[in-house]
Amino acid sequence: MTQKLVVPAERHASGSPTDGCFACDCKPSSIFGDLDAESLIALDRRRQASTYPAGATVFLQGDQPRAIYCVGTGRVKLSHGSEDGRSIALGIAVPGDVMGVRPMLLGTPHDLNAETLEETRLCFIPKDDFLEFLARNGAVSLRLAQKLSAELDEAYRHLSGAVLKSTTQRLAELILALCQTQGQPGREGINLPTSMCQDELAEFLGVSRRSLSRAFATLRNRGFIECRRRLIVVRDRAALSKSLGSLSGLHALPSRSVQGRVPTRHMAHS
Predict the structure, then answer these.
(1) In CATH, what number is assigned to the domain containing residue 120?
(2) Which uninterrupted H or E stretch holds 218?
(3) Does residue 257 lie in a domain region?
(4) For the domain that residue 203 is a member of, what is the CATH number?
(5) Which residues of 86-96 are buried (b: 16+ CB within 10 A; e: fewer)?
């Protein structure tokens, strides 16, 4: 398991309209996006920030929650480890996502591991400060409840549909989801830079490496995608989306597929 790395917080000036929470590019997509100026100042006064290198552990499964973490830049892999040493990837937190809220509110240890995939800047608020802030800001409490409910609903839908979907169909859905969160328009289509190898992608989908390779080959042969080193080019996103139904019977998933999750922002509040 990855060894925990503690990075000292950076010093910052709180409450300035040109710094911190006020100037954050991901504020509109976060649970704090609709705060008024007074509440944003109160939040910023509680904030600390750290920059983590790739491969650093933010928190470990079994740790007691000590803070909530908001992703400013970079990406954080969320996974769950079993007693026999296996690890199941459950999602990726991207800028604007908040991590560690659910166990803090439940008063339980973290049930996920959080590890940076690349250099990542995190803002964090200590537990007591965040709970005090939450008690004083009903709007944030309501927005947080809505987001957690939406994530629970999506988790149920993924779980109920996983056993019925083929590897190719699930890979196509993953690629379409990544187009929304990480896609970069290019001359040949939508570029999806990825730092994950096929073993890691297979882990996210809950399938074998061989099944994933066959699924990639199917999508390439149909002209939907092109695979390059650390890059997937989606040539025709609309056609790929329309083809999902026709891909449903290809390469049926093994029963363990129910453990997989699409690595988008959906597990970020865990």
Answers:
(1) 2.60.120.10
(2) helix 209-221
(3) no
(4) 1.10.10.10
(5) eebbbbbbbbb
Taking only the tens place, the pLDDT of each residue in 109-167 is 998 999 998 999 999 999 999 999 888 877 777 777 777 777 666 666 655 555 567 78
Range of the domain at 197: 164-252
Q: Which residue has the tokens 């769950």?
A: 80
Q: Could you tell me which residues come within 8 angstroms of residue 49 by beta carbon, excluding any fewer than 6 positions away?
A: 9, 10, 12, 20, 72, 121, 122, 123, 124
Q: What is the DSSP string of 118-135?
A: S-EEEEEEEHHHHHHHHH
Q: 100 phi and psi, to 5 degrees?
A: 90, 5
Q: CA-to-CA distance for 5 and 40, rounded, in angstroms?
A: 29
- Is 217 inside any structural domain? yes
Pairwise CA distance, residues 65 & 101, whole Å: 8
The pLDDT assigned to 53 comes to 95
